[in-house]
Design goal:
By secondary structure, the chain is an alpha/beta fold. It contains eleven helices and 13 strands. It folds into three domains: 3-84, Arc Repressor Mutant, subunit A (Orthogonal Bundle), CATH 1.10.10; 91-159 and 263-291, 3-Layer(aba) Sandwich (D-Maltodextrin-Binding Protein, domain 2), CATH 3.40.190; 161-262, D-Maltodextrin-Binding Protein, domain 2. The strands form four sheets. Strands 3, 4, 5, 6, 11, 12 and 13 form a seven-stranded mixed beta sheet that branches. A two-stranded antiparallel ribbon has the order 1-2. β8 (198-200) and β9 (208-210) form a beta hairpin.
Length: 295
């Protein structure tokens, strides 16, 4: 038995809280995870895990052994990282991205990242749900939200980007440009299916509610973006999403004296005593990228 590998399997089992989830995280089988646990328990002469049909819990010995394993494995990884720090970051990096970052914003950062780190192979999962990084085996995640609540993950704030109103030149030429918020209801406002009212913010004033929906409604940000480019109406996006479109004239900002509040871009990753080089490279790159995205 490779004891270090068995310890990694055991830690993954504890953190994923299940044999199937641990097997998926390790890209192996349920039976392999179970076999490693049985071998460990036989080697140590104690039961580490209480198994039931619905849940998994650690025995007292299992809790002590898990804490020791985490310490040992972090020391082993840190020692390896000392050597890796002198090498180009490499390996497969599994990243969870919001749909907007993984589609509409991808072209703004992916080419430069791949040029700088050619030995990192990205595996992107693009969805707006908040994944469980540890249980689902992700190395790192980006999230867009309001201020992030307390989390067991390490979090770095990348950007605070205002939500802005935009429309295509064709739409504004055909329907006119609204000069104040009172003119918005007369326009085609592109809204998210099931979305709430827009809250228009300006300096030293109460937010003004405006209900989108007299134009197209869609359940994905990518559909609303395509519709806005096609001249279907006025839509709301983060400035980070449409910065290039505004600069190149594909979209024009509408009512620039207003925003729809701010969205916070965070990068998150599991706690580790020594951050793997490929994760540190991605995090530092994203910090640099978003620092250049300010309005």
């Amino acid at each position: 038995m490779n004891q270090l590998h068995a310890m990694r399997v055991f830690c993954s089992l504890v953190e994923a809280q299940g044999f199937s989830a641990a097997a998926e995280r390790l890209d192996t089988t349920h039976s392999s995870v179970s076999r490693h646990l049985q071998q460990l328990e036989a080697e140590l002469g104690v039961r580490l895990v209480n198994r039931t049909t619905r849940q998994l819990s650690l025995t007292a010995a299992g809790q002590d052994y898990y804490a020791a394993c985490v310490d040992i494995l972090e020391r082993v990884d840190a020692a390896a990282a000392l050597c890796n720090d002198h090498q180009q970051p490499s390996g497969r990096l599994k990243v969870s991205l919001p749909l907007v970052v993984g589609t509409l914003e991808l072209g703004q950062w992916l080419p430069a990242f791949e040029q700088r780190y050619p030995q990192i192979q990205l595996e992107l999962s693009c969805a707006d749900r908040f994944v469980d990084l540890v249980a689902e085996g992700f190395d790192v995640a980006l999230r867009i939200s309001g201020p992030l609540a307390d989390t067991s993950l390490v979090s770095r704030l990348l950007d605070v980007s205002p939500m802005v109103l935009v429309a295509s030149p064709h739409y504004l030429q055909s329907h006119g440009t609204p000069l104040d918020s009172a003119a918005l209801p007369a326009h085609r406002l592109l809204g998210h299916s099931g979305g709430s009212d827009w809250q228009l913010h300006s300096d030293n004033a109460m937010p003004q509610p405006t209900r989108p929906g007299n134009g197209l409604r869609a359940d994905t940000i990518t559909s609303l973006y395509a519709a806005a480019l096609a001249g279907a109406g006025i839509a709301a996006f983060t400035f980070a999403t449409v910065k290039a479109d505004l600069r190149e004239g594909r979209l024009i900002r509408v009512l620039p004296q207003y925003t729809l509040g701010d969205r916070h871009y965070h990068v998150l990753y599991p706690h580790a005593r020594h951050l793997p080089g490929k994760v540190r490279a991605f995090v530092d790159f994203m910090v640099e990228h978003y620092s250049q995205m300010q309005p």
